[in-house]
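Fold it.
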Amino acid sequence: MSLLKFESMLKTNAIYFFDLVEFEEIIVHYLDAGKHALAKKAVKLGLQQHPASVGLKLLQVEIYVFEDELVKAELLLKIIERLEPNNDEVLIQKATINSKKGKHKVAIELLKTALSFTDDKVDVWSLLGMEFLYLDNFTDARLTFQKCVKVDFEDYSALYNIVYCFDMEKQHEEAIEYLNDYIEINPYCEVAWHQLGRQYYILENYLKALEAFDYAVIIDESFIGGYLEKAKTLEQLEQYKEAIDNYLITLELDDATAFVCMRVGECYEKLGNFEKAISFYKKAVHEDPLLDKGWMMLTNIYYSHQNYQKAANYISKALKIEEENTLYWRRYSEINFRLSFYEEAVIGYEKCLSLNDNGLEVYIGLIDVLSFLGEYDATYSTLLKAKKLYNDFAEIEYRLAGVFFLLGKEELGFNHLVVALKIDYDYNIVLKELYPIVYENEKVQKLLINFKKAME
């Protein structure tokens, strides 16, 4: 009734009288609802009718702090403090101001003092726990939040923070012990079962994790987070059909998300149902066209089925979104190589090198493409760069041998061929694939035969 009366007053510009309690209830309601403009009006009118009210002045301070009017807040707090030096709300607001200024240690001391004067210790512990978190003091934060839960077992915000602290300290076994104790007292808490499952999942105890997630969704059949984690666990257990079923439940409970569509697609791909996999990957990029990983999954599935034209189309979409990803450029080069677009393949591999991807596969890919193009001078210079990083690698030595033969430097060719044969004799097949003229050379064939005999 007070709220309706107040809002009616604002519409008609009439002035009604409200007692102090009514004003405080109205202001707190608006603050909780995030309607700060209305809360400000209520505080202003309240102080006009009750100018001596400390409670209203403290609510005014809260609004100042919210609006970052910290100087005004501090001045008003000094006035209130003279009237009521042991008011816990004064200490709490002073702590909040110091926290906003980054003075978390000062805030902690103020909150500890406030605990001596307040009857509602839970709210202060909650604020104190957050201050410890700001300082990355996870042990004290956890112990403080545990006090909150001990008083109110349904303080799930504190429970989440406790588990977060365990996570940050990598104390997963301790987290499991704490959650199991909590569940003994509050067994129908889906949040606790969910968090317990997460801890088992981190420790790769997937059967225990699955059991915990099962309880979570039995308690709350609309618990999307529970179904998601259960599905992820089933994937780890290679139970892909069951994983899909759980992912699909989340789609029934809420709007489709790109993440879920991606996961379903990957499960179908692992089951060998490529049409379904493609369908869900396409749904993922429909939900989020900027999801580069979605375009990449489409690229890879078409690449694996040798549909290089479609793969080329999708890799270009992925690269438009994430052009600094060297794995994408590698795939771009591999696709273009398959399509006989050798110049494009060279561009891709050179892009990898410019992004500091100096992997052996990148060098080998670039060297082989340059060889196909007959650009042996460029092949040679690239091989020299590769050899600085990968000395005594068969992949490099055989290619150096082949290029030296083609450049008419037979003695150097034989030198590198001998080194290559010593490293990995069977890999000499690469000569046949890349440099068939060299492989069929009589002297080369004689060396291969003699070397094999010497090995026997």
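Residues 1-85 form one domain.
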